[in-house]
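Now read these lines:
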Amino acid sequence: GLSSSFLNASTDEEQRRSLEEKSNRSDEKLSSSSSSIFQRMMDEIPFIHLFSGPGRKKLPPVQVDDVNVLFYDVFLIVNLSMSISFWVTHRLDFSFLSSAVNEGCLFSILWIASGLYHGSFLYSAMDGHYPPDDPSQRGGPKAAAALAFNTYINAVNLRLIAALVGAWFQHRKVGTGEPMEELIPLEIACGLVLMTLWRALHSSYTPRV
């Protein structure tokens, strides 16, 4: 009787310890997954890598490898601003074309700044900075489109900051009395689709050396 009760007590103790270990392991997995999600969110914040530690993700080199892609990006953005102004916002009014060109040039400068931060003008951008022989096949048009999407989002953020600063200095509402800022809503929607599809198409048709 004593031996059986002792065995039962030891069995219960082992089960309790096993449950505690499983609970601790699940808590560790949950905390590690939540911390990794938070880490990925932090890594997407512009310029956060400038303040990161040595073990964190590094910024790509600030350089332009593919000048032709950069020039075509600028052509698409300027043409987009002019088209939005002429065909949609100001309806066949040639007097606003100069403002549309200025807006396109400003957005192109912000796109270039964001692209240098993301490395969008490097040869590796066509695979989203993944190696061409990546075993998980994470590169390709989808990765290039995701990189272009993030680049354009940051360019939009910079444009909105510029619009807010300009409106604050001139003591007016954003988009009021400023033909350039009237194009921003359609530039955001159409530009995201345009630049994402263009970079995905460029990635799919460019041969890997």
